[in-house]
Amino acid sequence: MRRQFLTSTTALVLLLGVGQAYAGMDEAKAFLDAEIKDQSTLDRAGQEAEMQWFIDAAKPFVGMDIKVVSETITTHEYESKTLAKAFTDITGIKITHDLIGEGDVVEKLQTQMQSGENIYDAYINDSDLIGTHWRYQQARSLTDWMANEGKDVTNPNIDIDDFIGKSFTTAPDGKLYQLPDQQFANLYWFRYDWFNDEKNKADFKAKYGYDLGVPVNWSAYEDIAAFFTGREIDGKKVYGHMDYGKKDPSLGWRFTDAWLSMAGNGDKGIPNGRPVDEWGIKVNEKSQPVGSCVTRGGDTNGPAGVYSIEKYLEWLKAYAPPEAQGMTFSESGPVPAQGAIAQQIFWYTAFTADMVKPGPVLNDDGTPKWRMAPSPHGVYWRDGMKLGYQDAGSWTLMKSTPDDRAKAAWLYAQFVTSKTVDVKKSHVGLTFIRESTLQHPSFTERAPKLGGLIEFYRSPARVQWTPTGTNVPDYPKLAQLWWQAIGDASSGAKTAQEAMDSLCAEQEKVLERLERAGIQGDIGPKLAEEKTLEEWNADAVAKGDLAPQLKIEPEKDKPQTINYDELVKSWSN
Predict the structure, then answer these.
(1) Which spans in 130-248 are helix H?
(2) pLDDT (tens digit, 9 = 90+) per residue, 68-119?
(3) Would strands 371-373 and 343-348 be described as parallel, antiparallel, or unpaired?
(4) Cβ–Cβ under 8 Å, residues 133 and 109
(5) How far apart are CA 489 and CA 469, in angstroms?
(6) What is the pTM of this model?
(7) Which residues make Cβ contacts (< 8 Å) with residue 394, sequence separation at least 6?
(8) For 80, which DSSP code?
């Protein structure tokens, strides 16, 4: 009876709003003691001051139930299981952080955009949607939000300039539409131990006439792939390349994630090529998409794009394990860690956390037998172009979310990206978003066990790895076209040229529909007149641009490699 009375009293106290007594600095200190300790760029006094700010700012929203969503990766699992609970304990705002597939996140977001129904109070979705959010104007401009309605819930210590992906989430109007929460790049991965083996080095030099090392271009990558494929190392037959080829939605990411830019598709420009981006989509001076096919000045089906598909298919067949052709992204991901792959041209650093677990590719002292390095580039690539992809899962607030709910969710978004928690979060997920975190001494100490990840992120090379840019006016509609077109090439149903012709034509159908609907106003598509590849190339060259480039014969340049240790040394110098 007494227990029942106490429970009822507690419920009444919570109902009357005195529940905030159960959230505050005691809970914050317990969290800092147990979870953060010295893994923060702020000292303890700074951490407590930041926690006090969150407690005070959250007071009007105590007792609210807020729902946010993200894809399922290690970083977001940590947020969902550990940081969401801590935020709830400290502020009294109850957070449910759902983890679902990346495609499902985009689907929920699309549904909210189309229906106006508030499904989630905030989304962590890829910054690849920046062009979509800017053109549809259904996501809040965070620049405006932080200065106006959201000013009272914007952390004075947020330090937007500390976010290394800020340029990825800024639209052509100069406003920030998304706040990066996690980032990972697509780099080159290789067996450092095999590349430094004296017999391997001597045999390679004897066969190819140059040193075995990190390939600077695709010609060298191809030679290294051929050299290792079928070679016996430690009694095991190994392969010189790894990839995947099953006709599956994940095949689309394999290519939209900047494979064409590595080949040399599009124009120069950081973070993305202008006027033609790495999808081959061209925009005019008003940032209106004008075409994807070479007949409209685009480059999706140009020589560089076709070459990128041909090389992908050639290498998959000749140098990867036979089963790779039937694998999806998630099935192929763990294969290099099994110890029979010499190199992989297209490897996500999000796999680092799993790759540093004990296994065949780790030394007894916990240091890796592998390293990651900048990706090699294709024959069409020129200095000044982006060189690879970087995923930037970023917080997005929809206008259809009521203000009070958006404010409470914005507090959580800032909490999980705050300077108090970011170093610890980055040690768990290894997906860096803040410059201050990258420079933290704990990462200098841990760097030898992470195979070049810290060195890369601290290097000047980092800026050449960027997400999909603002030329893409409707990422969900356009991205789904890629895996079907590339899948036809992968299965042999179409040639590389036929697949890319089909892809650019399908992209232009979407652009045409958007233009006809007028839904994106004066920043939506406006298709250009059709001309020949040669005419568009001459026009580009006259304006000092590149794309679409004419076919290069032969599509092979002089192989070039670089010593990994020399490369890293040059960065620190």
Answers:
(1) 130-136, 142-147, 192-195, 198-208, 218-228
(2) 999 999 999 999 999 999 999 999 999 999 999 988 999 999 999 999 999 9
(3) unpaired
(4) no
(5) 25
(6) 0.92
(7) 124, 125, 126, 127, 165, 168, 169, 178, 179, 180, 181
(8) I
